[in-house]
Amino acid sequence: FLYLIGTAVFSVALALLFPLTNYEVSSLSLPWLSEDAGNAYWLLDNHTDADYFSSTIDATPYRDMLLSMENDQRFSYLICNVQSIYPDNVFLGDRLRGVVINQAANDIFSVAAAEGRSFAAADFLIDEQSEIPVLIGSDLANMLSVGDVFQASYFGQSCSFRVIGILSHDTMLYRLDTPIQTEDCVLIPAFFPAEDRHPVFEKALLQFSFDAIVFAPALSFSDLYRLLWEKAVLYQIDMVGFGRVAPLLQSFLSYRHQL
Fold this sequence. Notes:
This protein is α+β, with helices and mostly antiparallel strands.
């Protein structure tokens, strides 16, 4: 009982502190449901980076829930997040801006290569021991070419990246409500690392994958909220945020869905 009261107080405090962030509900409190909410929402989990680098976090329920989210045919689960990678080659600089994207986001954002090839379904089924296929922005084409392989640190794990294509200039991506400039980025496919091989790396990627957009053109807000809440309870995942995306992104996703 005291835990529920504390959670409710925390939710009210967030609403007062961040009135312009579109923060809507907590999965641990009674939801204030609104049918006038469109059909695209951002989703956040309740853990910090430090939590995921801790040995006390069990990665299994997070992996299971993410697989459930990505395989659910009732909505699209769109991962599109920014994460720096740190190349070994000083010629590439000390840091490159990575953008991690899953297949659903790749498809709905219509990511295409102007040179080389675009991502294929198999590119999202790799593990960290393989060469990770990447697309690069046009500004990086003076340093890297299609077919080049380079080493870089990715969430603290040394990985090999192979350039398979150069992004077209009209590529448009969003990280939650924020547009992402792609000219200087390295586009990386979201993948699940092998279980228990590199536990810290695995937890970092799983955490990263929970900051996502849920796009459900056929579901009402209340139906989608209940569906996600049931998943969170099933897998015992503590979800924090469930908010509407900005109207511009809402319109963009709806347009892409109709193509």
